[in-house]
Specification:
Blueprint lengths: L1 E4 L3 H18 L4 E4 L3 H17 L7 E4 L1 E4 L8 H13 L11 H6 L1 H14 L5 E4 L21 E4 L2 H11 L8 E4 L2 H5 L3 E6 L5 H9 L17 E5 L9
Parallel strand pairs: 1-9, 2-3, 2-5, 5-8, 8-9
Antiparallel strand pairs: 4-7, 6-7
The structure holds 2-phosphoglycolic acid (PGA).
Amino acid sequence: MKVLRHGSSADAARAVAQEVVALVAERPTAVLGLATGGTMVEIYAACVERAASEGVSFDRVRTFNLDEYVGPVAPERTFRAYMEEHFFGPFGIEPGPHAFPDAARAATDALGAARAYEDAIGRAGGIDLQLLGIGRNGHVAFNEPPASASSRTRVVELDAVTRADAGAAFGGVERVPARAITVGLATILEARRVRLVAFGASKAPAVERALLGPVTGTLPASLLRGHADVSFVLDAGAASGLG
Ligand code: PGA
């Protein structure tokens, strides 16, 4: 495990982008595991900028997003819309047919949608590099505490902390969907590289527990410490609890 501390989120984003773009330069059909959230906005902008400056095309990458809301959600609030805005649009590429778990199917056939997503990741040969954020409650993807290291793609109930944090984007916590379909921790732990990114002091307690506390499902990100190639990429605020 590596802990990479940067002075600013911009420096951290540039470092992550450098790695992502280098991977795609070396392997144009790389399989990327992608996350959403405020943190990733900076990461994707840095990736787009670096790919352009290096002349690296993302046309042939294959992508799998971590999760999607289940239930009635305005189209502009879906993670697909977020990814169009911050990743697929700026790169000028189309998401593949399995770039997101099938939230519509998950509403009535949770097991089928979950299995189909795991199968699609398997058919792609697994994930080369998985990007992750971390929730204030220590979640990764929507693996809310308590989570199991053997969990697979499934439909979950969202935690109160998660729904509160999403409330602003939805115009009120009561409008945030109650459920989502998310990849599991076992799915994430099978990625060949895992890069968890955290910015800002609000993440410092979760980061501190993930890195220095016990490895436990009550702080799901701590379970990543068992991965052979995981880095926690932090700005000064997120690292402020580490001493
Ligand atoms: P954020 O979300 O980047 O919006 O803080 C991260 C997460 O909850 O995984």
